[in-house]
Design brief:
Elements lengths: L3 H10 L13 E3 L5 E3 H13 L7 E3 L6 E3 L10 H4 L4 H14 L4
Antiparallel strand pairs: 1-2, 3-4
């Protein structure tokens, strides 16, 4: 029989950023449905778009390669990740998990 901590551990694994492999911090959502930490997504943007010298108005998802248009391309390139919507479902579930386990994720 699974214990509460075992279930929470499995649940937490489902909410890991595919870039840093840690629990999401300030989760942001691409149009394909994949989520990332804002800082991880910004690092991806920096390496794939900005550092190539020709910033583009769309970003390929690191997981499925689907393109997402930048929500607000007029924002400074260093803030593009912050312009994507917050994944409120992930944020809410992580808050619930933190309350159950008694710690902040």
């Amino acid at each position: 029989m699974a214990t509460g901590s075992h279930i929470l551990g499995r649940f937490s694994q489902a909410f890991e950023c595919p870039i840093c492999l840690e629990t999401f911090k300030s989760s942001t959502l691409l149009s394909c449905g994949h989520s990332y930490c804002v800082l991880c997504l910004q690092s991806h943007i920096n390496s794939k778009l900005i550092n190539r010298g020709t910033p583009q108005a769309r970003l390929s998802c690191p997981v499925c390669w689907a393109y997402s248009s930048l929500p607000n391309p007029t924002v400074a390139a260093e803030k593009w990740a912050e312009s994507f919507p917050v994944n409120s479902i992930v944020s809410s579930l992580l808050d619930i998990t933190a309350n159950i386990s008694g710690e902040t994720l």
